[in-house]
Specification:
The chain is an alpha/beta fold. The chain contains 18 helices and 13 strands. Helix 9 packs across helix 10 and helix 11 packs antiparallel against helix 15. It binds one RNA strand through strand 2, helix 2, helix 4, strand 5 and helix 5.
Length: 477
Amino acid sequence: MGRPERRGVPQHVRETRDRNDDFVRTSSEQHKTKVTEYFTALLASGDVYAGEYEGWYDAGQEEYVPENKAKESDYKSPVNGKPLVRKSEKNYFFKLSAYREQLLAHFEAHPHFVQPDARRNEIINRIKEAQDIPISRTGSNGWGIPIPGDEEQTIYVWIDALFNYLTYVDTPARRHYWTDNGGATHFIAKDILWFHAAIWPALLFALQKCDGYDWVNQPKQIYTHSYWVSKAKLDTGEEAVIKMGKSTGNFLDPETLDALVETFGLDALRYFLSTQGPLGTTDSEFSEAKYVEVYNSDLANTFGNSASRVSNMIGKYFGHREPLMTSLIEWEPTVSKAEPDTKWDLVWKNHTQGFFNINLYQAGDAALDLVRAVDAYIEVTAPFKMAKDMTENGSAVQEILFNCAEALRIASVLLWPFIPDACEKFWERVGCDYAAQMKANGGKGKLDEWVKWGQLQPGTPIEKGDALFPRYQVQKK
RNA sequence: CGCGGCGUAGAGGAGCGGAGUCCUCACCGGGUUCAUGUCUCGGAGACCGCGGGUUCGAAUCCCGCCGCCGCUACCA
């Protein structure tokens, strides 16, 4: 779902490179027309049927209270304390229970359908006991989409919202967006998992059976993330780390984001949000102290500094040209102290696996491991010492610095998704043009080619340039 | 109450049956000077939530307990 316009989005964040092709407004005619079509089909197939909903009704709030909440509050209104009444009314239901087997079979056949695994287990267990769900409401005061043939009842907003994934791609020209590449990937927050991982797939199965909808397939994956949390003052006066929200006052507002971008750059924001974010099942804390820490250690001290020291040496010893290679070096950077034999393979494995599993921290850290290996390599080989006698050691220094520059080039390819601005700046300095290559190739990069060893051209001018990520000095008190 | 998940150095993570657990950050001490107070080596710091069990061997498997979190369905 996208917003029709990016109001309230901070200036700098507007400059990110994320793009969208269209926005879905659930109030649009196209959406309404399509949802009405889907429901007409589902009514005909019997998967949506008229029934009777009975439950505990809170007259003051004009809403039903779920059984467990009713019990918790001793069958009184949680709001005004008046007793709840047993009430029933006409309602349309979706035959979710009929799809248990098919859903479970789908989960079985597609182990990565819902991720992470903890969420998958959660959903599988709930599906086993899934009941039919009421999907219509009354008294919506004219908004919402009416059940076809029964204007009194409107489709429950969440059900109608799920269909937004389909309503704008459901044209002959666009259907491939839904079906290509093994299906769509839904990237959602943990609170709406049930809707996306059980109800939505079941609705799709139901729709697929209907005439003219055999093109409808299941999403490829539903990935569930958690929340950003931060410190907030509770009503009780205590401080706690809780989910960000406007009402709790611990919201990360546009001004703060703008200020961060102003100070650290857009790459830093990208890097922080992607590698430190609440992917997986635990929430992540957003704090400025952590932001600075991550910026300094990963971007300034590691990638930025390493790029700087290598290009500086090349400048000093070889007049800013990539040293000529005298021999082909098979240098495999050492990645970890603990496993001195594990090298590039491990970096590559961790990087690709990280992206595959949506563990972006792992993917990014793998690239940094390569950078750390460059630093360690410089320490061991000490080209700055050898350079004191260039007539004796010139060719050895050449080899070493070539290796360093080449390893950094490869690291930059891996880091590109996280810090594109800095990487492109770096490529300009060392004479690469991957951004242009990608553009020429229809927006697709060639990762496995670009990471192959030995692509820097000897003799290429190397520019030192400004610090890619100037270290941020924390104010001392 | 039900279902599910989690609990590993000060913080965040990895390891999920076998070599003195490991990684990043923070902390302490040494080295280095090509580099952005950088890099590098060393150190301190964990009864791997608690108690049992299985095993030649458990952070890892099983049982119980404690603590935290998620879901439990009606307007996004």
